[in-house]
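Researcher: Re-running this chain for the archive, since the previous output was lost when a drive failed. Same request as before.
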Amino acid sequence: MRVLGIDPGLRCLGWGVIEVSGSRLSHVANGAIRTEGSVLAERLLMLFTGLSEVLERYGPDAAAVEQTFVNRDGAGTLKLGQARGVAVLVVARAGLAVGEYAPNAVKKAVVGVGHADKVQVAHMVRHQLPGVELAGPDAADALAIAICHAHHLQSAGRLAAALKGAA
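Model: Regenerated structure tokens:
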């Protein structure tokens, strides 16, 4: 199974694809979609087009997006939410369910600590995906989201199997 993780951002949207085989995780690809300009609609279109190409090229079976956190800058939070909306739309348009995780949940799943910094997240992504070359901190975060979702899917699968066996 291939899992796509997305770290939404208006200036830079990170993405990462991993392969899940049993409990084994392996890196497929990662990168960032960068936008420029001052026209919001054009930047959102760049995100839509770039992420659509990622889905078409790597054909994930599952996807997850980081939830938006609210910060002091209301306008910035709104723009981040619009970038996140584009990411969710692209994934839903491809027919995939969208897993959504709070930043602290992703960090806890990958690092073991909910308030880890970006350096710690990147270190643990490299540890869990040996040989990976990260395309930057946003791509590392996206791979962490994919890893978190893979763990969640594995747990849900084990629970469903246990419930079926008990029935």
